[in-house]
Protein backbone atom coordinates (compact mmCIF):
# COMPACT_ATOMS: atom_id res chain seq x y z
CA UNK A 1 0.00 0.00 0.00
CA UNK A 2 1.32 3.45 -0.85
CA UNK A 3 2.17 5.76 1.99
CA UNK A 4 1.42 9.43 1.83
CA UNK A 5 4.33 11.46 0.52
CA UNK A 6 4.85 14.56 2.61
CA UNK A 7 6.60 17.50 0.91
CA UNK A 8 10.14 17.95 2.26
CA UNK A 9 9.42 21.46 3.46
CA UNK A 10 6.70 20.25 5.83
CA UNK A 11 8.93 17.43 7.07
CA UNK A 12 11.41 20.07 8.15
CA UNK A 13 8.77 21.99 10.08
CA UNK A 14 6.80 19.12 11.63
CA UNK A 15 7.70 15.83 13.23
CA UNK A 16 5.06 13.14 12.87
CA UNK A 17 4.42 9.59 11.76
CA UNK A 18 3.88 9.32 7.99
CA UNK A 19 1.68 6.25 8.19
CA UNK A 20 -1.45 8.03 7.01
CA UNK A 21 -2.99 5.70 4.47
CA UNK A 22 -4.63 6.54 1.15
CA UNK A 23 -8.21 5.59 0.51
CA UNK A 24 -7.68 3.53 -2.60
CA UNK A 25 -4.80 1.56 -4.01
CA UNK A 26 -4.04 -0.80 -6.79
CA UNK A 27 -5.35 1.34 -9.66
CA UNK A 28 -3.57 1.19 -13.02
CA UNK A 29 -0.87 3.80 -13.55
CA UNK A 30 0.40 5.72 -16.52
CA UNK A 31 4.04 5.80 -15.57
CA UNK A 32 6.44 4.60 -12.87
CA UNK A 33 5.78 7.83 -11.00
CA UNK A 34 2.06 7.22 -11.12
CA UNK A 35 2.49 3.67 -9.85
CA UNK A 36 2.55 5.18 -6.38
CA UNK A 37 -1.18 5.76 -6.10
CA UNK A 38 -1.79 9.41 -5.16
CA UNK A 39 -3.82 9.29 -1.95
CA UNK A 40 -7.18 10.98 -1.75
CA UNK A 41 -7.54 14.10 0.33
CA UNK A 42 -9.88 12.37 2.70
CA UNK A 43 -9.90 9.48 5.12
CA UNK A 44 -13.04 7.43 5.68
CA UNK A 45 -12.74 8.26 9.36
CA UNK A 46 -10.12 10.03 11.45
CA UNK A 47 -7.21 7.68 12.01
CA UNK A 48 -6.25 6.72 15.54
CA UNK A 49 -4.19 9.17 17.54
CA UNK A 50 -1.25 6.80 17.39
CA UNK A 51 -0.63 7.67 13.73
CA UNK A 52 -1.75 11.29 13.71
CA UNK A 53 0.78 14.08 13.60
CA UNK A 54 0.67 16.54 16.50
CA UNK A 55 -1.70 19.46 16.21
CA UNK A 56 -0.61 22.23 13.88
CA UNK A 57 1.64 24.83 15.47
CA UNK A 58 -0.57 27.90 15.44
CA UNK A 59 2.35 29.96 16.69
CA UNK A 60 3.83 29.35 13.23
CA UNK A 61 0.81 31.08 11.66
CA UNK A 62 2.41 34.49 11.76
CA UNK A 63 3.56 36.86 9.08
CA UNK A 64 6.50 38.54 10.80
CA UNK A 65 9.29 36.26 9.62
CA UNK A 66 9.35 37.29 5.95
CA UNK A 67 12.53 35.32 5.32
CA UNK A 68 10.71 32.11 6.27
CA UNK A 69 7.51 33.06 4.44
CA UNK A 70 9.22 33.65 1.10
CA UNK A 71 12.22 31.34 1.47
CA UNK A 72 11.18 29.23 -1.53
CA UNK A 73 10.48 32.13 -3.92
CA UNK A 74 13.49 33.17 -6.07
CA UNK A 75 14.34 36.85 -5.98
CA UNK A 76 13.54 37.31 -9.69
CA UNK A 77 10.03 35.92 -9.19
CA UNK A 78 9.55 37.95 -6.03
CA UNK A 79 10.43 41.14 -7.93
CA UNK A 80 8.02 40.27 -10.75
CA UNK A 81 5.23 39.32 -8.33
CA UNK A 82 5.62 42.54 -6.39
CA UNK A 83 5.54 44.61 -9.59
CA UNK A 84 2.56 42.80 -11.16
CA UNK A 85 0.51 42.89 -7.96
CA UNK A 86 1.28 46.58 -7.60
CA UNK A 87 0.16 47.23 -11.19
CA UNK A 88 -3.04 45.21 -10.84
CA UNK A 89 -3.82 47.04 -7.63
CA UNK A 90 -4.18 50.26 -9.65
CA UNK A 91 -7.73 50.19 -11.06
CA UNK A 92 -7.13 52.57 -14.02
CA UNK A 93 -4.30 50.30 -15.13
CA UNK A 94 -6.57 47.25 -14.90
CA UNK A 95 -9.23 49.11 -16.92
CA UNK A 96 -6.66 50.03 -19.57
CA UNK A 97 -5.42 46.44 -19.83
CA UNK A 98 -8.98 45.12 -20.16
CA UNK A 99 -9.75 47.69 -22.85
CA UNK A 100 -6.66 46.70 -24.84
CA UNK A 101 -7.45 42.97 -24.63
CA UNK A 102 -11.00 43.56 -25.86
CA UNK A 103 -10.16 46.16 -28.50
CA UNK A 104 -9.60 45.84 -32.24
CA UNK A 105 -5.88 46.13 -31.53
CA UNK A 106 -6.02 42.38 -30.89
CA UNK A 107 -7.14 41.89 -34.52
CA UNK A 108 -3.95 43.45 -35.89
CA UNK A 109 -1.56 40.54 -36.40
CA UNK A 110 1.77 42.18 -35.59
CA UNK A 111 0.39 44.25 -32.72
CA UNK A 112 -1.51 41.27 -31.33
CA UNK A 113 1.74 39.31 -31.02
CA UNK A 114 3.36 42.18 -29.14
CA UNK A 115 0.40 42.51 -26.75
CA UNK A 116 0.27 38.74 -26.15
CA UNK A 117 4.00 38.71 -25.41
CA UNK A 118 3.55 41.53 -22.88
CA UNK A 119 0.62 39.71 -21.27
CA UNK A 120 2.55 36.43 -21.19
CA UNK A 121 5.53 37.98 -19.41
CA UNK A 122 3.46 39.75 -16.77
CA UNK A 123 -0.18 39.04 -15.95
CA UNK A 124 -0.23 35.54 -17.52
CA UNK A 125 3.00 34.28 -15.91
CA UNK A 126 1.85 35.60 -12.55
CA UNK A 127 -1.61 34.00 -12.47
CA UNK A 128 -1.37 31.01 -14.87
CA UNK A 129 0.66 27.83 -14.51
CA UNK A 130 1.68 27.33 -18.15
CA UNK A 131 0.45 26.94 -21.71
CA UNK A 132 -0.29 23.20 -21.44
CA UNK A 133 -0.85 20.53 -18.81
CA UNK A 134 2.72 19.28 -19.00
CA UNK A 135 4.14 22.75 -18.31
CA UNK A 136 1.62 23.20 -15.51
CA UNK A 137 2.85 19.91 -14.08
CA UNK A 138 6.36 21.35 -13.87
CA UNK A 139 4.95 24.37 -12.02
CA UNK A 140 3.30 21.98 -9.58
CA UNK A 141 6.66 20.28 -9.04
CA UNK A 142 8.15 23.61 -7.96
CA UNK A 143 5.22 24.24 -5.63
CA UNK A 144 5.51 20.76 -4.16
CA UNK A 145 9.16 21.33 -3.30
CA UNK A 146 7.98 24.36 -1.34
CA UNK A 147 5.40 22.34 0.57
CA UNK A 148 2.30 23.37 -1.44
CA UNK A 149 0.05 21.41 -3.77
CA UNK A 150 -1.73 22.24 -7.00
CA UNK A 151 -5.32 22.30 -8.21
CA UNK A 152 -5.10 21.87 -11.97
CA UNK A 153 -7.71 23.67 -14.05
CA UNK A 154 -7.86 23.72 -17.83
CA UNK A 155 -8.49 27.42 -18.35
CA UNK A 156 -11.43 27.40 -20.75
CA UNK A 157 -14.66 29.30 -20.31
CA UNK A 158 -18.20 28.72 -21.63
CA UNK A 159 -19.01 26.31 -24.47
CA UNK A 160 -22.01 26.91 -26.71
CA UNK A 161 -22.24 23.70 -28.76
CA UNK A 162 -21.36 20.02 -28.53
CA UNK A 163 -18.27 20.44 -30.68
CA UNK A 164 -16.84 22.94 -28.20
CA UNK A 165 -17.86 20.73 -25.27
CA UNK A 166 -16.11 17.69 -26.79
CA UNK A 167 -12.97 19.72 -27.40
CA UNK A 168 -12.96 20.95 -23.80
CA UNK A 169 -13.64 17.44 -22.51
CA UNK A 170 -10.43 16.20 -24.11
CA UNK A 171 -8.55 18.93 -22.25
CA UNK A 172 -10.05 17.94 -18.90
CA UNK A 173 -9.34 14.24 -19.47
CA UNK A 174 -5.75 15.04 -20.42
CA UNK A 175 -5.45 17.04 -17.20
CA UNK A 176 -6.30 13.91 -15.19
CA UNK A 177 -3.72 11.90 -17.16
CA UNK A 178 -1.01 14.47 -16.44
CA UNK A 179 -2.03 14.63 -12.76
CA UNK A 180 -1.60 10.87 -12.43
CA UNK A 181 1.92 11.07 -13.83
CA UNK A 182 3.05 13.62 -11.21
CA UNK A 183 4.48 12.75 -7.78
CA UNK A 184 1.88 11.31 -5.41
CA UNK A 185 -0.16 13.87 -3.50
CA UNK A 186 1.23 16.86 -5.44
CA UNK A 187 -2.13 17.40 -7.19
CA UNK A 188 -4.96 17.84 -4.70
CA UNK A 189 -7.81 18.28 -7.21
CA UNK A 190 -8.63 18.41 -10.88
CA UNK A 191 -11.06 21.26 -11.57
CA UNK A 192 -13.94 21.12 -14.04
CA UNK A 193 -16.29 23.83 -15.24
CA UNK A 194 -19.67 22.38 -16.17
CA UNK A 195 -20.16 25.38 -18.45
CA UNK A 196 -17.28 24.04 -20.54
CA UNK A 197 -18.74 20.53 -21.08
CA UNK A 198 -22.45 21.35 -21.34
CA UNK A 199 -23.81 24.01 -23.72
CA UNK A 200 -24.64 27.23 -21.89
CA UNK A 201 -28.13 27.46 -23.37
CA UNK A 202 -28.96 24.00 -22.05
CA UNK A 203 -27.72 24.93 -18.57
CA UNK A 204 -29.96 27.99 -18.66
CA UNK A 205 -32.95 25.88 -19.71
CA UNK A 206 -32.28 23.25 -17.03
CA UNK A 207 -31.91 25.94 -14.37
CA UNK A 208 -35.24 27.46 -15.40
CA UNK A 209 -36.92 24.06 -15.11
CA UNK A 210 -35.34 23.34 -11.73
CA UNK A 211 -36.39 26.75 -10.41
CA UNK A 212 -39.94 26.22 -11.58
CA UNK A 213 -40.05 22.82 -9.88
CA UNK A 214 -38.96 24.56 -6.68
CA UNK A 215 -41.93 26.90 -7.07
CA UNK A 216 -44.28 24.04 -8.03
CA UNK A 217 -43.17 20.62 -6.65
CA UNK A 218 -45.76 18.87 -8.83
CA UNK A 219 -43.89 20.05 -11.92
CA UNK A 220 -42.41 16.89 -13.46
CA UNK A 221 -38.85 16.69 -14.81
CA UNK A 222 -38.54 13.24 -16.42
CA UNK A 223 -34.78 13.64 -17.04
CA UNK A 224 -33.94 14.43 -13.43
CA UNK A 225 -31.89 11.91 -11.43
CA UNK A 226 -31.47 11.75 -7.65
CA UNK A 227 -29.91 14.89 -6.20
CA UNK A 228 -29.48 16.80 -2.97
CA UNK A 229 -31.53 19.96 -2.37
CA UNK A 230 -30.46 22.68 -4.78
CA UNK A 231 -32.43 25.59 -3.33
CA UNK A 232 -33.30 26.91 0.10
CA UNK A 233 -36.36 28.92 1.02
CA UNK A 234 -34.42 32.15 0.48
CA UNK A 235 -32.84 31.19 -2.85
CA UNK A 236 -33.47 33.64 -5.70
CA UNK A 237 -35.92 32.33 -8.29
CA UNK A 238 -36.45 35.59 -10.17
CA UNK A 239 -34.60 34.42 -13.28
CA UNK A 240 -37.59 32.25 -14.21
CA UNK A 241 -40.61 34.49 -14.71
CA UNK A 242 -43.00 32.02 -16.32
CA UNK A 243 -43.53 28.28 -16.61
CA UNK A 244 -40.79 26.97 -18.93
CA UNK A 245 -41.41 24.53 -21.74
CA UNK A 246 -40.10 20.96 -21.27
CA UNK A 247 -36.78 20.05 -22.83
CA UNK A 248 -37.06 19.25 -26.51
CA UNK A 249 -35.86 15.92 -27.91
CA UNK A 250 -32.70 17.66 -29.14
CA UNK A 251 -32.09 19.22 -25.73
CA UNK A 252 -32.56 15.86 -24.01
CA UNK A 253 -30.04 14.39 -26.43
CA UNK A 254 -27.58 17.18 -25.57
CA UNK A 255 -28.22 16.55 -21.87
CA UNK A 256 -27.37 12.88 -22.30
CA UNK A 257 -24.11 13.85 -24.02
CA UNK A 258 -23.27 16.20 -21.15
CA UNK A 259 -24.04 13.44 -18.64
CA UNK A 260 -21.72 11.09 -20.52
CA UNK A 261 -18.90 13.64 -20.51
CA UNK A 262 -19.16 14.19 -16.77
CA UNK A 263 -19.49 10.44 -16.14
CA UNK A 264 -16.33 9.75 -18.14
CA UNK A 265 -14.44 12.44 -16.25
CA UNK A 266 -15.66 11.16 -12.87
CA UNK A 267 -14.71 7.58 -13.72
CA UNK A 268 -11.23 8.70 -14.75
CA UNK A 269 -10.81 10.56 -11.46
CA UNK A 270 -12.01 7.49 -9.53
CA UNK A 271 -9.38 5.38 -11.30
CA UNK A 272 -6.69 7.99 -10.60
CA UNK A 273 -7.95 8.49 -7.02
CA UNK A 274 -7.85 12.27 -7.54
CA UNK A 275 -10.91 14.28 -6.44
CA UNK A 276 -12.83 16.28 -9.04
CA UNK A 277 -13.86 19.74 -7.92
CA UNK A 278 -16.76 21.39 -9.75
CA UNK A 279 -16.40 25.16 -9.99
CA UNK A 280 -19.35 27.43 -9.25
CA UNK A 281 -20.68 30.00 -11.73
CA UNK A 282 -23.31 32.75 -11.72
CA UNK A 283 -26.83 32.10 -10.39
CA UNK A 284 -28.41 32.04 -13.85
CA UNK A 285 -26.89 28.57 -14.42
CA UNK A 286 -25.82 27.50 -10.92
CA UNK A 287 -28.93 25.35 -10.24
CA UNK A 288 -28.06 23.10 -13.20
CA UNK A 289 -24.41 22.98 -12.10
CA UNK A 290 -25.44 21.94 -8.59
CA UNK A 291 -27.72 19.29 -10.09
CA UNK A 292 -24.85 17.82 -12.15
CA UNK A 293 -22.56 17.96 -9.11
CA UNK A 294 -24.92 16.31 -6.63
CA UNK A 295 -26.19 13.60 -8.96
CA UNK A 296 -22.56 12.73 -9.78
CA UNK A 297 -21.61 12.73 -6.10
CA UNK A 298 -24.42 10.28 -5.32
CA UNK A 299 -23.06 7.98 -7.99
CA UNK A 300 -19.32 8.21 -7.25
CA UNK A 301 -18.79 9.27 -3.61
CA UNK A 302 -18.60 5.98 -1.75
CA UNK A 303 -16.92 4.32 1.24
CA UNK A 304 -16.09 7.61 2.90
CA UNK A 305 -14.31 8.83 -0.23
CA UNK A 306 -15.75 12.03 -1.77
CA UNK A 307 -14.41 12.06 -5.31
CA UNK A 308 -16.82 14.79 -6.47
CA UNK A 309 -16.71 18.14 -4.62
CA UNK A 310 -19.12 21.05 -5.07
CA UNK A 311 -18.52 24.77 -4.57
CA UNK A 312 -20.46 27.21 -2.40
CA UNK A 313 -20.12 30.94 -3.03
CA UNK A 314 -20.60 32.55 0.36
CA UNK A 315 -21.21 36.06 -0.94
CA UNK A 316 -24.68 34.76 -1.78
CA UNK A 317 -27.30 35.35 0.92
CA UNK A 318 -28.64 31.79 0.70
CA UNK A 319 -25.22 30.05 0.80
CA UNK A 320 -25.31 28.82 4.41
CA UNK A 321 -28.86 27.48 4.10
CA UNK A 322 -28.08 25.62 0.87
CA UNK A 323 -24.86 24.21 2.33
CA UNK A 324 -26.65 22.85 5.41
CA UNK A 325 -29.51 21.37 3.36
CA UNK A 326 -27.18 19.62 0.92
CA UNK A 327 -24.87 18.35 3.67
CA UNK A 328 -27.74 16.95 5.73
CA UNK A 329 -29.29 15.28 2.69
CA UNK A 330 -25.93 13.70 1.87
CA UNK A 331 -25.61 12.40 5.43
CA UNK A 332 -29.12 10.96 5.31
CA UNK A 333 -28.27 9.10 2.10
CA UNK A 334 -24.90 7.95 3.45
CA UNK A 335 -23.00 9.91 0.79
CA UNK A 336 -19.69 11.51 1.85
CA UNK A 337 -19.74 15.02 0.41
CA UNK A 338 -17.00 17.57 -0.03
CA UNK A 339 -17.36 21.32 -0.59
CA UNK A 340 -15.07 24.16 -1.55
CA UNK A 341 -16.02 27.41 0.14
CA UNK A 342 -15.25 30.66 -1.68
CA UNK A 343 -16.51 34.18 -1.37
CA UNK A 344 -17.48 34.45 -5.04
CA UNK A 345 -16.43 35.91 -8.37
CA UNK A 346 -19.51 37.20 -10.22
CA UNK A 347 -20.52 40.16 -8.11
CA UNK A 348 -21.00 42.74 -10.84
CA UNK A 349 -22.93 40.29 -13.06
CA UNK A 350 -25.25 39.23 -10.22
CA UNK A 351 -26.10 42.78 -9.27
CA UNK A 352 -26.65 43.80 -12.88
CA UNK A 353 -29.00 40.89 -13.64
CA UNK A 354 -31.01 41.29 -10.43
CA UNK A 355 -31.39 45.03 -11.00
CA UNK A 356 -32.51 44.51 -14.60
CA UNK A 357 -35.29 42.20 -13.39
CA UNK A 358 -36.35 44.53 -10.57
CA UNK A 359 -35.03 42.46 -7.67
CA UNK A 360 -32.57 43.00 -4.87
CA UNK A 361 -29.10 41.60 -5.36
CA UNK A 362 -28.57 38.01 -4.14
CA UNK A 363 -25.17 39.18 -2.83
CA UNK A 364 -24.78 40.10 0.84
CA UNK A 365 -25.32 43.80 1.43
CA UNK A 366 -21.95 44.37 3.11
CA UNK A 367 -18.50 42.82 2.96
CA UNK A 368 -18.82 42.18 6.69
CA UNK A 369 -21.89 40.00 6.04
CA UNK A 370 -19.93 38.08 3.39
CA UNK A 371 -17.03 37.52 5.79
CA UNK A 372 -19.47 36.31 8.45
CA UNK A 373 -21.14 33.91 6.02
CA UNK A 374 -17.79 32.47 4.90
CA UNK A 375 -16.65 32.01 8.49
CA UNK A 376 -19.99 30.48 9.56
CA UNK A 377 -19.89 28.02 6.66
CA UNK A 378 -16.27 27.19 7.49
CA UNK A 379 -17.19 26.44 11.10
CA UNK A 380 -20.10 24.27 10.00
CA UNK A 381 -17.96 22.21 7.65
CA UNK A 382 -15.04 21.90 10.08
CA UNK A 383 -17.37 20.62 12.81
CA UNK A 384 -18.95 18.24 10.31
CA UNK A 385 -15.71 16.65 9.09
CA UNK A 386 -14.33 16.47 12.62
CA UNK A 387 -17.17 14.12 13.55
CA UNK A 388 -17.82 12.24 10.32
CA UNK A 389 -17.05 11.77 6.64
CA UNK A 390 -16.66 14.49 4.05
CA UNK A 391 -14.13 17.15 3.27
CA UNK A 392 -13.75 20.88 2.91
CA UNK A 393 -11.55 23.22 0.89
CA UNK A 394 -11.35 26.68 2.42
CA UNK A 395 -10.50 28.90 -0.53
CA UNK A 396 -9.79 32.29 1.00
CA UNK A 397 -7.42 35.21 0.54
CA UNK A 398 -8.62 36.83 3.75
CA UNK A 399 -6.03 36.71 6.53
CA UNK A 400 -8.58 36.86 9.36
CA UNK A 401 -10.67 34.03 7.87
CA UNK A 402 -7.51 31.97 7.54
CA UNK A 403 -6.59 32.57 11.18
CA UNK A 404 -10.11 31.81 12.42
CA UNK A 405 -10.34 28.57 10.43
CA UNK A 406 -6.89 27.46 11.56
CA UNK A 407 -7.82 28.09 15.20
CA UNK A 408 -11.14 26.26 14.80
CA UNK A 409 -9.44 23.28 13.15
CA UNK A 410 -6.90 23.19 15.98
CA UNK A 411 -9.71 23.33 18.55
CA UNK A 412 -11.51 20.41 16.87
CA UNK A 413 -8.39 18.28 16.63
CA UNK A 414 -7.99 18.54 12.86
CA UNK A 415 -5.41 21.30 12.99
CA UNK A 416 -2.66 19.30 11.29
CA UNK A 417 -1.75 17.89 7.88
CA UNK A 418 -5.10 16.21 7.44
CA UNK A 419 -6.75 14.65 4.41
CA UNK A 420 -10.14 16.18 5.20
CA UNK A 421 -9.07 19.83 5.23
CA UNK A 422 -7.36 21.87 2.53
CA UNK A 423 -6.74 25.60 2.33
CA UNK A 424 -6.48 27.16 -1.13
CA UNK A 425 -5.52 30.41 -2.82
CA UNK A 426 -5.21 31.51 -6.42
CA UNK A 427 -1.87 30.89 -8.09
CA UNK A 428 0.20 34.05 -7.88
CA UNK A 429 -1.80 35.60 -5.05
CA UNK A 430 -1.78 35.59 -1.24
CA UNK A 431 1.64 33.95 -1.04
CA UNK A 432 2.06 35.06 2.58
CA UNK A 433 -1.18 33.36 3.64
CA UNK A 434 -0.37 30.21 1.67
CA UNK A 435 3.11 29.81 3.13
CA UNK A 436 1.98 30.93 6.58
CA UNK A 437 -0.66 28.18 6.71
CA UNK A 438 1.80 25.67 5.27
CA UNK A 439 4.40 26.62 7.89
CA UNK A 440 1.73 25.96 10.54
CA UNK A 441 1.30 22.41 9.23
CA UNK A 442 -1.86 22.69 7.13
CA UNK A 443 -2.33 21.35 3.62
CA UNK A 444 -2.43 24.24 1.17
CA UNK A 445 -3.13 24.22 -2.56
CA UNK A 446 -2.85 26.78 -5.31
CA UNK A 447 -5.62 27.07 -7.94
CA UNK A 448 -3.59 26.73 -11.16
CA UNK A 449 -5.24 27.56 -14.50
CA UNK A 450 -3.31 26.67 -17.64
CA UNK A 451 -3.68 26.93 -21.41
CA UNK A 452 -2.47 29.11 -24.33
CA UNK A 453 -2.71 32.85 -23.76
CA UNK A 454 -5.44 33.19 -26.41
CA UNK A 455 -7.48 30.34 -24.85
CA UNK A 456 -7.35 31.60 -21.29
CA UNK A 457 -7.87 35.26 -22.26
CA UNK A 458 -11.55 35.18 -21.19
CA UNK A 459 -10.45 33.73 -17.84
CA UNK A 460 -7.84 36.45 -17.40
CA UNK A 461 -10.37 39.17 -18.29
CA UNK A 462 -12.92 37.81 -15.84
CA UNK A 463 -10.32 37.55 -13.09
CA UNK A 464 -9.23 41.13 -13.74
CA UNK A 465 -12.80 42.44 -13.68
CA UNK A 466 -14.24 40.42 -10.82
CA UNK A 467 -11.16 40.43 -8.59
CA UNK A 468 -10.26 44.09 -8.95
CA UNK A 469 -11.19 44.68 -5.31
CA UNK A 470 -9.08 41.77 -4.16
CA UNK A 471 -6.19 42.84 -6.38
CA UNK A 472 -6.38 46.34 -4.97
CA UNK A 473 -6.37 44.82 -1.47
CA UNK A 474 -3.19 42.86 -2.16
CA UNK A 475 -1.21 45.53 -0.33
CA UNK A 476 -0.56 43.17 2.57
CA UNK A 477 1.30 40.74 0.32
CA UNK A 478 3.11 43.56 -1.49
CA UNK A 479 4.25 45.06 1.82
CA UNK A 480 5.69 41.74 3.02
CA UNK A 481 7.34 41.13 -0.37
CA UNK A 482 9.01 44.55 -0.24
CA UNK A 483 10.26 43.78 3.26
CA UNK A 484 11.79 40.50 2.07
CA UNK A 485 13.31 42.13 -1.02
CA UNK A 486 14.83 44.77 1.23
CA UNK A 487 16.20 42.10 3.56
CA UNK A 488 17.75 40.22 0.63
CA UNK A 489 19.28 43.41 -0.76
CA UNK A 490 20.84 44.21 2.63
CA UNK A 491 22.15 40.66 2.94
CA UNK A 492 23.73 40.88 -0.52
CA UNK A 493 25.40 44.21 0.23
CA UNK A 494 26.49 43.61 3.78
UniProtKB/TrEMBL annotation:
Residues 186-470 form the Proline dehydrogenase domain. Keywords: FAD, Flavoprotein, Oxidoreductase, Proline metabolism. One of its GO terms (biological process) is L-proline catabolic process to L-glutamate. GO terms for cellular component: mitochondrion. Residues 28-42 have a biased composition (Low complexity). Its EC number is 1.5.5.2. Transmembrane segments: none annotated. GO terms for molecular function: FAD binding; proline dehydrogenase activity. It is an enzyme of class 1 (oxidoreductase). Pfam families: Pro_dh. It catalyses: L-proline + a quinone = (S)-1-pyrroline-5-carboxylate + a quinol + H(+). Its cofactor is FAD. It comes from the Eukaryota. PANTHER family: PROLINE DEHYDROGENASE, PROLINE OXIDASE. Converts proline to delta-1-pyrroline-5-carboxylate. Belongs to the proline oxidase family. This is Proline dehydrogenase. It comes from Crotalaria pallida (Smooth rattlebox).
Amino acid sequence: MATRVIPPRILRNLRYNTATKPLNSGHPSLSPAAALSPPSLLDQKPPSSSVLPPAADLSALNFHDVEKLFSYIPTSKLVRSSAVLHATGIEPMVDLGMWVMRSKLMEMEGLRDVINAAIRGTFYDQFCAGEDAVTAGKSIGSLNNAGLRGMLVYGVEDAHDNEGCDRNQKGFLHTVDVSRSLPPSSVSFVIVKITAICPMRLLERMSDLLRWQQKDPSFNLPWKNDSFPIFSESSPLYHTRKRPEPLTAEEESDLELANQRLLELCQKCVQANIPLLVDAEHTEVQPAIDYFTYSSAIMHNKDGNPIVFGTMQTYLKDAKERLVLAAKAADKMGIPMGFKLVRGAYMSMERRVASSLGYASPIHNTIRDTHKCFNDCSNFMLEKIANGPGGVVLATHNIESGKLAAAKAHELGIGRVNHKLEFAQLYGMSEALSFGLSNAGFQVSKYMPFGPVETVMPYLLRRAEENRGMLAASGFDRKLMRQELGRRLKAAIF
